[in-house]
Amino acid sequence: MKALVCADPFDLRLETREPPRPAAGEVLLQMRRVGLCGTDYHIYAGKHPFLEYPRLIGHELAGEVAETPAGSRFAVGQVVTVNPYLPCGTCRACRRGKPNCCAAIRVLGVHVDGGLCEWLAVPEAAVVDATGLTLEQAAMVEFLAIGAHAVRRAGVGSRDRVLVVGAGPIGVGTALFARIAGAEQIVLADTRAQRLDYARAQFGFDETVVADATLADTLAAMTDGEMFDQVFDATGNIAAMRAGLAYVAHGGDYTLVGVCKDDLVFADPEFHKRETTLRASRNALSVDFDHVIASIRSGRIATDRIATHHLSIDEAPTRMPQLIDEADSVLKAIVSL
Fold first, then answer.
1. HSE-up of 201 (CA within 13 Å, CB side)?
2. Dist CA 174 CA 232 (whole Å)
3. Model confidence over 185-214: pLDDT tens digits?
4. Is the dihedral of CA 134, 113, 117, 331 positive or negative?
5. Percentages (nearest 5) of helix, strand, coil residues in the chain
C-alpha cells in the first residue's frame, strides 16, 4: 500500500508498505480522506516535541470499514472517522476519565504510525461512527474536536468576551465552538491579515485584529481596558503564548491549545493579580467528537468553507512544502486516497 512517511525533518516520502493485518478487536479501514494540520507541518519542519523519526503521518482520518471483528457495532462500508488518541486505559488520567492526556498515550501519526496510507487497522474503541457526513467532513472532525474540547474545558458562556489568538484551523475551530457556546463577543487575532479576511468573509467573525506590536493597545481600546474573560492561544508560538497573559481580564481564563518545545514564562505579579486560571487543553474526548459530528449534521459548522485545498497522496511529498509556504491562504488541506 502507499504510505506518506516523514523520514527526517524536511524529508517526506511516499513509500510502499505491506497492508496491516488487524489484530483481535481491531477494525480494518480503507482510508479515503486525511486532513493535514499544524502537527504534520511541525513534524515536517522538525518542530514537534513528542515525535521520533521516521513517522507515517496523518491523524485527521476518514475512511470506510473494510473488515470488523466478530460482534462489532460497525458494518462493512460504513463511513467513519477515528479518535487518534490511543490511551493505555490504566494510568491515573485514564482511570479518571481523561484518556486524552493519558500518561502513556499513543497518538496516531505522532507517537506511532498514522493513517495517511491506504489501509489502517485500529482498535474498535477508536473508531467513530460518521454516518450522515461526507468523507471530507469526516476528515475534519478530529481537528474541530480540538477546539470544541478547549471551549468546553474553559466553560465558555453567554457572558464571556473571547479572544482567540491564531486564525489557523484550530483557532477558527475554537472560535466556531465559542460561538456555538453563546459567547458574548469573539475576537480573532493573527499575524496574517489574509487569514483574518477569510475568517471574516467566510465565517462572519467581524471583529479581527492583526497581531502586531500594537496588539495589546488595540485590544485594550476594544474593551475599555478590561480585556477578555477567555483567551485561547492557538498559535503554538512561544512569543505569542507568553504575550497572551496581558490580554486576560481580571478574573479571566487563559487556555493554551497550541504546543511548542520552549519554556513558558510569565511575570508572577501579572498572573497573580488577575487570579488567572491557566490551563492546557490537550487533544479531545469522545464527547467532543460527538459534539462536532452533531454540529456538522445540524449545519452549524460550514465545512465547505473550511476545506480550502485538495490533493492526492501522490502529490503530497511535493505539495506539503508548498502548502507551508502558502500558509496565508491555506485553512485546511485534505488528501484524497
1. 7
2. 8
3. 999 999 999 999 999 999 999 999 999 999
4. positive
5. 35, 30, 40
Q: Which residue's C-alpha cell is 511575570?
A: 267
Return the C-alpha cell found at 28: 480494518
The rounded average pLDDT for each run of 10 residues, N- to C-terminus, in the chain (337 residues) is 95 96 97 92 81 93 97 97 97 97 95 96 97 97 98 97 96 98 98 96 97 96 97 95 97 94 91 96 97 97 94 95 87 95
pTM higher than 0.85 for the full model? yes
Contact 247/219 with Cβ under 8 angstroms?
yes
Distances (CA, A) of 129 to 144, 293, 337: 16, 9, 20
Partners of 165 in the beta sheet?
A: 189, 233
Q: Which domains does the chain have, with CATH numbers?
A: 2-139+302-336 (3.90.180.10), 147-280 (3.40.50.720)
Determine the straight-line distance between the first and last CA of the chain, rounded to whole angstroms: 11
C-alpha 45 chain-centroid distance: 18
Burial of 95 (0-12, 13-18, 19+ CB in 10 A): exposed
Q: How far apart are CA 292 and CA 298, in angstroms?
A: 10
